[in-house]
């Protein structure tokens, strides 16, 4: 059995775990009160990463409330839910059943976490920078300093002493639709011409991200900072000369590209920079604006009529195994899939199956990185643009605020009120 | 009166059914995939089909619409249990019952609308009357310019400035937030004060300008001149004669404004991070959450329709010439 082998799992237990049956011991075994044994059909080096995800936890049989579980999950950590209103907020209070001696990572310093949802970045930045009243004890998980306020906050030394800027696991790329742009030389020319540095500037510059050289980011194990085959760091505005040469070699001068982007301000501004750089390199660019709320549905259609479009993907855990197969694996070419480039190359697919079977974790992670590099240089399915960064503030009344690079968010586990 | 109410209520129901049908069918014209949201990052066609089936999205649109409408009147059975009438179903996004979400968000919108309306009505009409009373003087000119300035303002601009100055800068006002009136009236008041003031700045302008022009017009009417000629005090003439005539169009506009405000003040709610009906409406459109969108649309439309009926009924009291039938 395998957690990932969906079909076999379904055969073993066609109705899921809610019909009074349990998985057979040959699949999942609990030899004593403290051990769960998963039997896999092949080596699965990354299981520890998978089970460390926040949506996985052991639940005693009597506490499994089935379809009602998500409304009132068992609290095994330092806090429990007091009240939850989806879309509005959630409050956590101390869990008196939690024993600090059994848990060296998390703490119970704060009496209560009152989390409210739906704050605009402009508003959370204003409040955290002003640091008034109850906001002195406020923090945010993922709200960044709004791009429009970055320069003001940078000048505010006091606020900057309550800030962090860290790289997140989210990687922005501009996917190339390989069904339409079939010539690899043309794709290479796009990759050389693309102005990743100038593009990043529209999203907030170095505080919003760092220029990306590859398809996977620095939060992953085995990441190589020197990997930058299209010299995105050296040429922030793109290398038009190199791109022109490639187009000439391919006999595709004045190649027409359809560039699609969401109709938000930032993307509209970025589209101008992109258009100019690609035209400098000898492309003809046709811009197509897409309504932001349906952007991913539209670019997610396999039969879309666009050549270039931005997409973003975050690794689930620090291995490129959670990036390469879903985003560049050939079996994932269907509507709404993350393989926006529609890349389906037999050698890549074979390599994915091979690396999946590697049993040694550190070898597996480095093989995945190597494969991501090979995909970029051999197939050019996307242009690396930037690795997202989180630049955020918190109130002066808080201590112990740190960053969790796996979740790409501020980590509340050691936060205390001064 | 009863006949009037019965006829108008029937008309209102027809309007609401039409609105519901238009919303429902238009939703499916969107190039969006609601099931995609519930499908997660590594979504494949099998999971997508399963979610579509669970949400009932695999059925023909008219069938879905019929089931939805029946649910509102008679309740509906779902896999998780029975949903009592009025059942608007479950949100595609949060899986919460739509009706209880609306009930939870409504007090915020009600507080914002009623409080804001009280401020803009009192200030707007007051300013308009002063301007009309002192017509042609600097007071009139000052207030007329002021209301023009107010009318050209936008909440997302004034609101953000007000937050930056009064809350973050000077610190003389509380961060806007909703606290239930029943739990803490003082906190409720201080939490809503800034949204009320900003909301009323925009609306106030309309009311002061309308009051002024109506009053000016009324003060030139024959019956007012007669009253003056009869030697009635200027206060009596102003309030009992002119004001009575001027109020009717103001009540009409107020009814419509209050109805729309109860359907949610989207920009105000976003600007001040208030979780009301307006914000819920915007979010349900962004997230292609059909049941929530339908619920919010129907509640908002019902508010407008009901207030229109109330305004028409109120006419009979304000203007004795109007007879309801």
From TrEMBL, chain A:
Gene3D superfamilies registered for this protein in UniProt: Dipeptide-binding Protein, Domain 3, Periplasmic binding protein-like II
Protein name per the record: Solute-binding protein family 5 domain-containing protein
GO BP: peptide transport
Pfam families referenced in this protein's UniProt entry, alphabetically: SBP_bac_5
All copies of domain Solute-binding protein family, residue ranges: 26-333
Location of region: Disordered: 1-26
GO molecular function ontology, one term from the record: peptide transmembrane transporter activity
Regions crossing the membrane: none
InterPro entries documented for this protein: SBP_5, SBP_5_dom
Organism encoding this protein: Streptomyces violaceusniger
Highest taxon in the source lineage: Bacteria
UniProtKB/TrEMBL annotation, chain B:
Positions of the ABC transmembrane type-1 domain: 106-315
Subcellular location: Cell membrane
PROSITE patterns: ABC_TM1
InterPro entries reported in the protein's UniProt record: BPD_transp_1_N, MetI-like, MetI-like_sf
Record-annotated membrane-spanning stretches: 12-30, 110-133, 145-168, 188-207, 245-272, 292-318
Top-level taxon of origin: Bacteria
Any Pfam family the entry gives: BPD_transp_1
Alphabetized Gene3D superfamilies for the sequence: MetI-like
Keywords, alphabetical: Cell membrane, Membrane, Transmembrane, Transmembrane helix, Transport
Record's GO cellular component terms: plasma membrane
GO biological process, one term: transmembrane transport
Bilayer topology annotation: Multi-pass membrane protein
Family designation: Belongs to the binding-protein-dependent transport system permease family.
The protein, known as: ABC transporter permease
Lineage: Bacteria, Bacillati, Actinomycetota, Actinomycetes, Kitasatosporales
């Amino acid at each position: 059995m395998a957690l990932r082998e969906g079909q076999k799992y379904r055969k073993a237990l066609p109705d899921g775990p809610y019909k009074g049956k349990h998985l057979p011991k040959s699949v999942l075994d609990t030899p004593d009160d403290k051990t769960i044994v998963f039997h896999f059909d092949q080596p699965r080096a990354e299981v520890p990463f998978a089970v460390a995800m926040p949506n996985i936890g052991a639940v005693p049989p009597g506490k499994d409330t089935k379809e009602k579980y998500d409304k009132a999950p068992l609290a095994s950590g330092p806090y429990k839910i007091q009240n939850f209103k989806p879309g509005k907020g959630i409050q956590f209070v101390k869990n008196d059943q939690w024993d600090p001696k059994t848990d060296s990572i998390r703490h119970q310093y704060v009496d209560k976490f009152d989390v409210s949802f739906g704050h605009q970045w402009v508003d959370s930045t204003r409040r955290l920078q002003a640091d008034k009243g109850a906001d002195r004890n406020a923090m945010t998980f993922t709200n960044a300093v709004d791009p429009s306020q970055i320069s003001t906050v940078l000048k505010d030394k006091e606020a900057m002493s309550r800030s962090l800027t860290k790289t997140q696991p989210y990687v922005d790329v501009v996917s190339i639709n390989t069904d339409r742009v079939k010539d690899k030389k043309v794709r290479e020319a796009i990759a050389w011409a693309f102005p990743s540095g100038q593009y990043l500037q529209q999203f907030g510059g170095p505080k919003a991200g760092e220029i990306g050289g590859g398809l996977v980011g620095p939060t992953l194990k085995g990441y190589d900072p020197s990997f930058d085959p299209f010299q995105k760091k050296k040429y922030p505005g793109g290398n038009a000369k190199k791109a022109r040469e490639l187009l000439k070699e391919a006999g595709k001068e004045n190649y027409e590209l359809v560039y699609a982007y969401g109709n938000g301000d930032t993307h509209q501004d970025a589209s101008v920079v992109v258009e100019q750089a690609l035209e400098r390199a000898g492309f003809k660019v046709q811009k197509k604006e897409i309504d932001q709320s349906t952007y991913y549905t539209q670019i997610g259609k396999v039969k879309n009529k666009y050549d270039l479009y931005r997409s973003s993907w975050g690794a689930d855990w620090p291995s490129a195994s959670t990036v390469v197969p879903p985003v560049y694996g050939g079996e994932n070419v269907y509507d709404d899939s993350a393989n926006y480039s529609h890349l389906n190359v037999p050698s890549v697919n074979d390599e994915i199956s091979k690396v999946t079977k590697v049993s040694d974790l550190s070898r597996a992670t480095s093989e995945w990185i190597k494969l991501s590099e090979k995909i970029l240089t051999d197939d050019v399915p996307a242009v690396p643009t930037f690795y997202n960064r989180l630049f955020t503030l918190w109130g002066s009344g808080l201590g112990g605020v740190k960053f969790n690079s796996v979740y790409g968010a501020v980590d509340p586990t050691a936060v205390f009120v001064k | 009166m009863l006949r009037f109410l019965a006829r108008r209520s029937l008309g209102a129901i027809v309007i609401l059914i039409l609105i519901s049908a238009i919303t429902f069918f238009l939703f499916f014209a969107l190039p969006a995939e609601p099931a995609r949201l519930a499908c997660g990052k590594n979504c494949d066609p099998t999971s997508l089909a399963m979610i579509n089936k669970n949400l009932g999205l695999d059925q023909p649109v008219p069938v879905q619409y019929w089931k939805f409408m029946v649910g509102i009147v008679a309740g509906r059975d779902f896999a998780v249990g029975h949903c009592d009438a009025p059942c608007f179903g479950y949100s595609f996004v949060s899986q919460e019952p739509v009706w209880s979400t609306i009930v939870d968000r409504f007090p915020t919108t009600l507080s914002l609308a009623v409080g804001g309306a009280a401020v803009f009505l009192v200030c707007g009409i007051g300013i308009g009357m002063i301007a009309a009373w002192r017509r042609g003087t600097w007071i009139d000119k000052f207030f007329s310019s002021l209301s023009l300035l107010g009318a050209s303002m936008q909440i997302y601009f004034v609101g953000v400035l007000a937050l930056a100055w009064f809350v973050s800068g000077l610190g003389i006002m509380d961060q806007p937030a909703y606290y239930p009136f029943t739990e803490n009236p003082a906190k409720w008041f201080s939490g809503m004060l800034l949204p009320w003031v900003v909301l009323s700045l925009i609306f106030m302008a309309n009311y002061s300008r309308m009051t002024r022009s109506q009053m000016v017009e009324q003060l030139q009417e024959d019956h007012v001149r007669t009253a003056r000629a009869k030697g009635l005090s200027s206060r009596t003439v102003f309030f009992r004669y002119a004001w009575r005539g001027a109020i009717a169009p103001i009540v009409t506009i107020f009814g419509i404004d209050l109805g729309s405000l109860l359907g949610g003040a989207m920009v105000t709610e976003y600007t001040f991070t208030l979780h009301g009906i307006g914000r819920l409406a915007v979010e349900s459109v962004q997230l292609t959450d059909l049941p929530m969108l339908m619920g919010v649309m129907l509640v908002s439309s019902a508010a407008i329709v009901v207030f229109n009926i109330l305004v028409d009924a109120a006419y009979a009291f304000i203007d004795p010439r109007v007879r309801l039938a």
